[in-house]
Design brief:
This protein has 317 residues and is an alpha+beta fold. Helices cover 38% and strands 21% of the residues. The protein is built from nine helices and eleven strands.
């Protein structure tokens, strides 16, 4: 069948009003930077504020955690709002040495003497992991730390050792989350389980009995046990690591964990059902491939801090 001949006359074109300013593509509002570049810059910023390099690196990893797992509001955005001001005004002491108050082998009580919590809580988890390797469980009762970021990040430090990590906190500075709790556990053949939450009561004081009971549980383990109630503006924590392979075979634990977390996967009305840690692992893989997204304001704040400290600026992708 022959094609229908087209008219040589052009159809009239209606003029389209151009916007005063071209609108940006939504994704372009976020600048992506490589993970290593972001963590390296934050590490240098902390070392410029007198943290030893090893502490600065752990602190940088902790503060970048939110940006790498899809919760940027609790990530690098808090660097200039919370962490650096407390270092500058002396509320946090970058080189404070922890004081061992009581040591009972598998359990210990440590006062970190206002050390940066971004480092101190991770250090406490590393100590708990070391003791769990000897005793099957390691429990650190902690006080005297500054703001520490997300509890789930510190709990997850137990995962590379095939251990279960638990972090509970009570007290703290005004405006910080109430009774944060983090837990991490190996999930066998599936992405690791990482739970990160705040047991917040509502402002009217009408929290349900279960929430109130859960908050009391955290207060007992993190606040009463550490003695933080005797100190104003202090945070108490319970940091615990459990080595399951000291109680059962590694193969048996792996199979049981795979069965448990595999049973939680499914679909609900066309929506995938996943457990805490799954989506965070996917988001991290995306950041590794494409870079970490930083909104314009946070990116500009980082650039300003780097410039003031004469550090190399971030290089985007």
């Amino acid at each position: 069948m022959p094609l229908r001949p087209r008219s040589l006359r052009r159809a009239p074109v209606e003029p389209i009003a151009e916007p005063a300013e071209p609108s940006s593509i939504p994704e372009q509002v976020w600048q992506r930077v490589p993970i290593d570049a972001l963590v390296d810059l934050v590490t240098e910023i902390f070392t410029a504020h007198d943290l030893p390099w090893s502490r600065a690196r752990m602190a940088a990893e902790a503060v970048c955690h939110g940006d790498l797992t899809g919760t940027p509001e609790s990530g690098v955005a808090e660097l200039t709002r919370l962490h650096l001001p407390m270092l500058v005004n002396g509320m946090v002491r970058p080189r404070a040495e922890p004081l061992m108050i009581a040591d009972r082998g598998a359990a210990a009580l440590i006062d970190y003497r206002r050390a940066p919590g971004l480092w101190a809580v991770g250090d406490a988890m590393d100590r708990a992991v070391s003791r769990a390797g000897r005793y099957g469980v390691g429990l650190m009762s902690v006080r005297g730390v500054g703001p520490f970021g997300r509890a789930g990040h510190h709990a997850a430090r137990a995962l590379p050792h095939t251990m279960i990590g638990l972090v509970m906190a009570a007290g703290g500075e005004h405006g910080t989350a109430a009774n944060p709790l983090g837990m991490a556990a190996p999930a066998g053949a599936y992405p690791e389980f990482v739970l990160d939450l705040d047991t917040l009561a509502d402002t009217a004081g009408t929290a349900s009995a279960s929430i109130a009971g859960f908050s009391l549980l955290v207060e007992i383990f993190a606040g009463v046990l550490s003695g933080v109630g005797d100190h104003d503006h202090d945070t108490g924590l319970m940091v615990m690591a459990i080595a399951p392979t000291t109680l059962r075979s590694a193969d048996g634990f792996y199979k049981a964990a795979s069965a448990l977390f595999g049973s939680l996967l499914g679909w609900d009305g066309g929506t995938p059902v996943r457990y805490p840690g799954w989506r965070e692992a996917q988001y991290l893989e995306q950041c590794q491939a494409l870079g970490v997204p930083l909104n314009e304001q946070v990116h500009r704040e980082l650039e300003d801090v780097a410039k003031a400290l004469r550090l190399a600026p971030l290089q985007g992708r």
